[in-house]
Amino acid sequence: MSTGNTSADNTNKVMLASDYQEGAHPSIIAKLAETNMMATEGYGFDAFSQHARHLIREACQCPGAEVQFLIGGTQTNATVLDCLLRQYEGVIAADSGHVSVHEAGAIEADGHKVLALPGMHGKLTADQVERLVMDFEADGNREHMVAPGVVYVSQPTEYGTLYSKAELTALSRVCHEHGMRLYVDGARLAYALASQENDVTLADLARLCDAFYIGGTKCGALLGEAVVVPNPSLIPHFFTLIKQHGALLAKGRLLGIQFECLFTDGLYGQIGKAADEKAQRIVEALRKRGITLYCPCPTNQVFFIVSNGQMAKLGEESVYSFWEKYDDAHTVIRYATSWATTDEQIDRIVKIIEEL
Amino acid sequence: MSTGNTSADNTNKVMLASDYQEGAHPSIIAKLAETNMMATEGYGFDAFSQHARHLIREACQCPGAEVQFLIGGTQTNATVLDCLLRQYEGVIAADSGHVSVHEAGAIEADGHKVLALPGMHGKLTADQVERLVMDFEADGNREHMVAPGVVYVSQPTEYGTLYSKAELTALSRVCHEHGMRLYVDGARLAYALASQENDVTLADLARLCDAFYIGGTKCGALLGEAVVVPNPSLIPHFFTLIKQHGALLAKGRLLGIQFECLFTDGLYGQIGKAADEKAQRIVEALRKRGITLYCPCPTNQVFFIVSNGQMAKLGEESVYSFWEKYDDAHTVIRYATSWATTDEQIDRIVKIIEEL
Amino acid sequence: MSTGNTSADNTNKVMLASDYQEGAHPSIIAKLAETNMMATEGYGFDAFSQHARHLIREACQCPGAEVQFLIGGTQTNATVLDCLLRQYEGVIAADSGHVSVHEAGAIEADGHKVLALPGMHGKLTADQVERLVMDFEADGNREHMVAPGVVYVSQPTEYGTLYSKAELTALSRVCHEHGMRLYVDGARLAYALASQENDVTLADLARLCDAFYIGGTKCGALLGEAVVVPNPSLIPHFFTLIKQHGALLAKGRLLGIQFECLFTDGLYGQIGKAADEKAQRIVEALRKRGITLYCPCPTNQVFFIVSNGQMAKLGEESVYSFWEKYDDAHTVIRYATSWATTDEQIDRIVKIIEEL
Amino acid sequence: MSTGNTSADNTNKVMLASDYQEGAHPSIIAKLAETNMMATEGYGFDAFSQHARHLIREACQCPGAEVQFLIGGTQTNATVLDCLLRQYEGVIAADSGHVSVHEAGAIEADGHKVLALPGMHGKLTADQVERLVMDFEADGNREHMVAPGVVYVSQPTEYGTLYSKAELTALSRVCHEHGMRLYVDGARLAYALASQENDVTLADLARLCDAFYIGGTKCGALLGEAVVVPNPSLIPHFFTLIKQHGALLAKGRLLGIQFECLFTDGLYGQIGKAADEKAQRIVEALRKRGITLYCPCPTNQVFFIVSNGQMAKLGEESVYSFWEKYDDAHTVIRYATSWATTDEQIDRIVKIIEEL
Description:
Strand content of chain A: 15-25%
Shape of chain A: globular
Number of helices of chain A: 14
Helix content of chain A: 25-40%
Oligomer: homotetramer
Largest sheet of chain A: 7 strands, mixed
Number of strands of chain A: 13
Largest interface: A-B, 54 and 54 residues
Strand order of the largest sheet of chain A: 3-9-8-7-6-4-5
Radius of gyration of chain A: 21 Å
């Protein structure tokens, strides 16, 4: 999440402030128009939603999974974590994790503590988690403390970095050895799945996690996140709890139709691939120009460190996201690509970078 | 809310189970398609949302009002009531009110008691409310009790009935004389505003209420509810609290575009009027046929009492909502009309009723 | 709970406003003095608490029960119900139940709805509960509603009435047949156990309930309630949840010592018996004088209906509790006896009643 | 909070594991016995509580303050913070603060985030707080984040260290300049007030803080904490909110009598002074023996670093608190003195230390 340099007139600029600045992938809009007059049941009992669930279960190679469609990321995290956590438990997360900083206290509003650990480019390690748990278990006062109950990671992270299959497997092992659950926030999952550096599949997620979500909002949908619970008995009455959290859409078809689109003919994969490839062109241009990346950028987000002069020049022709001050003379900024980014836009950005 | 007789094959039946069974009014779909490729800021800071807010403030004749777009009804009620209630307060509502029964405990999940009063066709009276408050204030144990803090009413009610301007004015007076706030759930507000029997305008609501919402989901939008807070200082940091409740849409434009449509060229009024008129044709047919209405039906919902035989016949050619058992031989069912209902459908329904 | 007529000068009046108006039974005070200088572990790990737990398990004939000492009634109800209820569940209670009206919304503050049913002299019937559950299970919208999860009853009730063993057995059966739990609030349990009309033992409670508490505060202790969970696996990490609810006493010995006293040499039984007998002398006097009881009064609380003139006379020589207006000319008031009530006080009260 | 080496037989050992291991100061026990048979009103409306409030207001030189008696520390912190925080705010605390780690998530269970900052020997600085607030206010995403609303400090801290008047004044200034409130946890306040190094009076606390509590449980009472709110309008309906949090004692006299005792004839001061002096004798002995203090120890808690061999020797004749491993060969342990500690016990401890 971030704020683009959008106060000035942005006409004719290349807009790369975020991956949720346009509407939805055109095939989604087309399908919404095409199905508009059909009367269906509400609350996700329509045939579109049922079919979308089926497609997702297949993609996850997990025929027994419960799949529910929620609306947005914060809502999904708050709802699922409230379902996964017992009252005496908290959720371990990187200090840069969305649940740690950018959900306005939604997790705590539901009664749960976020146990923040310092992340490395947004990532936690199994070792860190295990150390926290071992320390907790060894603490004479542990019964006066919040027990670690769930580990929250995002794939890709808020910094666009990736967990490898080995890393996720280690996290999953630590969780399950210590009676915890593993939850993966996949707000931008399309960009992880499509990354050249990725070795984690949907089936891996379904095998390693206790719950995860496949992001729609930031991956080409108007809105929507598909929660997958590989073992549904873990969350009894999930539907009612979604309703209680205000996360149940009356016209559930709106979510069903979109995820049906995304999981038909490989669209979700294509959206991720196209955006990742465009982002990698920016990465390459930055490297050539000698501009330092802030962190590895294997997905659709490119974080890099520019001098204030460079930032001003970039701002003349593009809209980026301000990320944070690096030092007095430098700033970390971000470009994010999406299904809506064109080759022409990337050509322009590459040229601007070359001329910095 | 209800369950239609949808288990059987519904091909060729007249679908009147609810007013949210189709997509969205065609002009909304068209506007979404047309604006799809524009890049905008997120979280409701886009120009569509700003313009929609302006249009709503004008329609409410309340230029200083805060207008925020949320996603669904339960979410809106839970969020706004959590903002309006202090911790030691509860919300007075009719026992049939949506917040009392059909929100899966969302109000209580946020920490607030619903103080239910018996409703008459879904309505509360100012006298009832005043009596509750006076009893509370006279109670020696009142400091051990939940204080009444907000009165919740729906316009139209869950039974499609209407508060008159005099009734709302009386409720508003009681609330403000006793330090309470008045909140109106307008999930189906279009059908109230357009009703022949209605004398309450948006400007009246803005003048009499402390907060209310203008329903989108059930009035022609894909999703969305516009919350109006006439005096914004009543809810400081409303934006952050919306975020905390998981009610902030990343692509806020989706809400802005829809409410811009609904409040341009009188569309919201037309949607209400068309549906109300069609419902009144059903009402008239039922009266002619001598079938008893369950309650006054001045808006788009028609509740009526049928014998089990009649219900079976209606079910052969239409989809209605089962409401409740009336007695062993009779049932209360509902037809709901909407922007999507056609004259031909009503012709068929009228004919079926005549032949019952 | 109630407010006595205590604004005037009460010197020399017979004080029967409540059963918690004096300190503690003298043997408790003596034991506190005697053990004062012993150093013990905190948080209930001291030997007094351990021994008191053992005595209570024996009295309940339930050697495997978990016994935890909490501080007050509202706190105990809120803590235990929060532990017994899942997030999608509410608690069924009589509309006069302490959790329904006199806990300032503590149950809702923890996120749970109270599903109130009309009580008869404070009591629920198994039939009422079963009807509510069957209606819920048959409701097409039940997944949008709060599920009944726990039944709360008080023994004796807030009106001093008693559940028979048959009635409690029926409630227990309904609960367990429908996947619910039964919880008994025993704030005044001593007076139930000692009543001539009682046939429910501690062992019955341990057999029939999923949790209950043995009241200390209103039965001769300075403070304290002993929660019994016959099957401890029902509430994992109960200790931590008690801490989280602010219900864990640092000097847990204060609770342990008191319950050790109460469950040694039959003191708890004697306290109940003495108070009940004194209350029955008042009941008899009222009957002789032709004054109507408000409800059956088999325990230590006597509710009766007096004319306003009679009330004034009683107020000259005694302190009672105002309960509620009966009609313009009559009022329901209450006398409550306790371990501290003397025969001389009752003699005076009986004489006053005779002369009304 | 800590765990003493209490598993072995402790007969004849010097018990210094904590300052809440005995009952209560003998004058409290005497007063409880003496007043036991008096009948009083409940819930803190008795004359003892009223008088105790008066004495505390006088001691704080704050005649308009609201004074309420709660039961324990975690409960008091959770209740007061829930009253002081708005829904969109969190509480800033040192990472070692009681609310950060040892309240089993009580703050979060009430819906609030703890914004932890690294403490220095348990203390926060005004600079740290100001930096956090400035960073928050400068953050482009601040509306998606928890706003700092209250600063929590403990006096003395969990490490027995003290804030000077200058430090507290600076914290108070930062809080009020940024619209925040300052709350002081005085669980062990007697030991701060009596310390040779202290320059903060009760009147200073009443002047600088928005709320604080005067600890009873760890300062000679059986239980009880006196909350002082200098400007009562800051917390409307505080009584009801105390009830809602399960923190209202039915026999409120038990708290009133104890605080009346503590604030009569300077008892609270004497308890602090006696314990501090005894602790300083231990400090001096450790210094002479060349044993390193873990932090400055100006109050009744002495934290020091011993080799494992030394720890074993100390454990043979005394009960200390294990605090944390320092390194493989060393451990941090704590002695805590109280009103119950005798000169003879200190003589023995000093001798043991000399012989280490």
